[in-house]
Amino acid sequence: MAKKGKGETNRPLSQSIQDSAHLIWLAGLGAFAKVGEEGGKLFETLIKEGEKVEKKARDAASATLEEVQEKAGETRGKVADTWDKVEQLFEDRLARVLNRMGVPSHDELQALTQRVDELQEMIKKAAGAVET
């Protein structure tokens, strides 16, 4: 049996690698040609898909915005109602404290003012009757 040289031993392996590299090269050229032929179609398809995704995202964002605005309006109404209740409680308690201190209420002052006006009219009439 004759000994093979280093070049001969690696020859089938190097041929196999060379063949594989050539096939990869051909596949790359084929892909490049395919993209060249169908690249425009692919680009248009990607644009259409992008538009669909963008529309879905906008619709979802719009729906979420409407929901947030609706909830904010509800919350605003609840806060206003609560504030009105707190204000009324404060006014009621203040009126009770002032009443305990002997300060007359608004209604009591109105009645007193009206009574003073009536008395002044009576005095004017009585003074006019005495002078005549």
Please name the defining characteristics of this protein.
mainly alpha, 132 residues
Characterise this structure.
- By secondary structure, the protein is mostly helical.
- It is 92% helix and 0% strand.
- The termini are far apart.
Order of helices and strands: HH
In whole angstroms, the N-to-C terminal distance is 167 Å
**Care to count the β-strands?**
0
Main sheet overview: none
Percent strand: under 5%
- Summarize the amount of helix as a percent range: over 70%
Which structural category fits the helices and strands? mainly alpha
Radius of gyration: 49 Å
Number of helices: 2
Low-pLDDT residue intervals, each spanning 5 or more residues: none
pLDDT average, as an integer? 83
Identify the overall geometry.
rod-shaped
Give me the secondary-structure topology.
Elements: H1 6-100, H2 106-131
Task: Give the gist of this structure.
The chain has 132 residues and is mostly helical.
